[in-house]
Task: structure prediction
Amino acid sequence: MSTQDIAATAAQLVVEEGLEYGPAKRRAVRQLKLPERTTPLPDNDELEAAVREYLDLFCADTQPAELLALRRLALVWMERLAEFRPHLSGAVWHGTATKLSDIYLQLFCDDEKSLEIKLIDQGVRYQPRTARGLHGDSVDVLGIHAMCQPLGIFVGLHLLVNDRDAVRGALRKDAKNRSPRGDLAAVRLLLSTFKDN
Result:
């Protein structure tokens, strides 16, 4: 069985269940009854291509509106947290998000506690945890359940708190010459391209 088969199965899990790429690949291997330790996995580019293909085939009538709603919600939060230099990343930035996708904002500030104080002052409840940051180091993450009115659901919003200097290299293009994340201006530009805007 090829990595394309694994990518196709993982893509369905990403779209239909909202799994992140890593867990989707591992579950696809188990679902296909392949040896977990020795089976070569598709890379993220191959999986992203499979996700886009799946979306085109099965979700073309719903996904664009869901993506638009998530990008608009991301923009609201980016404007709310503008002082922390927010950058949108993940599926919402790349255009593969559905209503099951979470929103990931990379924030850059000198004092991570200032973000917590701002959220507390605004009456926003959050769950703290840690995750791997932009440069492989551990960063604080504040998780929020944000209401997305157009979709009628709560969406996971993850605020990854990076050191202010970590913004250097954050916009370095990938192998396909795409930026891995976008700042406020870039997200506004993305939204301006939607026809019903």
User: Anything to note?
Assistant: The mean pLDDT is 92. The helical segments are 3-17, 21-31, 44-58, 63-80, 90-94, 112-121, 184-192. The chain has two domains: 3-58, 63-192.
